[in-house]
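ERR on first pass: missing label on line 2. Operator R.T. fixed the label and resubmitted. Corrected input:
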Amino acid sequence: METKEKKPLEKVCIICAKGNLEDVYASLVMANGAVMEGIETNLFFTFFGLEGITKKSMNHLHTATTGNPAMKMPGGLPFPTMLGGLPGVESAVSSMMRKQMDELGMPPVDEFLEMITAGGGTIYACRLAVDMFKLTKSQLSDEVKDIITIGEFYELCDGDRTQIIFT
Amino acid sequence: MAVKTIAGVEVKVTDDGYLEDMTQWNKEIANEIAKELNIELTDKHFEVLNYLREKTIAKEALTIRSVGKSGIVDIKQLYELFPKGPLKFSSKIAGIPKPTSCI
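pass 2 clean. output:
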């Protein structure tokens, strides 16, 4: 009988390039989940994803209320795009979403980042994007270990049981 | 499901090695499961294990976040006590079902 040897993941490198609430949380849940499974984890934030590690914005992320066909009204009816464009609507919908996530036990972004580093995960910011948005290290979460280039990121991705995940 | 002898007691376990019946659990069983995971249990470990069992009996969902807010350990200490499996390994040793939470 043929027996297949299991080859569990040893390392994941997750890239978060978008700053919507759901995109940042997707990266955070995947990174935290990997750390909990004992998988070495690097989390790399770039472009608008930097919103998720910028102190000023990270706990106030928005979800898009226009151009989001999956968006529903409470009760399940489709969310009219015209309504989503009104001032204050995106803000209100986003804060409602954050409240619902909180009720499910999902931590706010700053605490989620702490949970990931507490378990040994490492968080990086992209050099090019940080320069482009004119950010400094002190404006980023204290959990961010370093601002690195894409080359340095690839160096972190060595090993034959490593996966790169782009969310 | 299988029957396994742990610390001299016949217990029912799942394919992953979690106890089917948490009432069959005792300290010796905990020590033996921990040894398989290369963990040497201390009093602090048992404080966490007892907390997990209490919450499971109370049917509360377990997350590393809730354990971190329990006042027993913070999340970093939880990882130190149960390396590479803060919720999975602790649940296994505590004799409770495999965690179903994503956080």
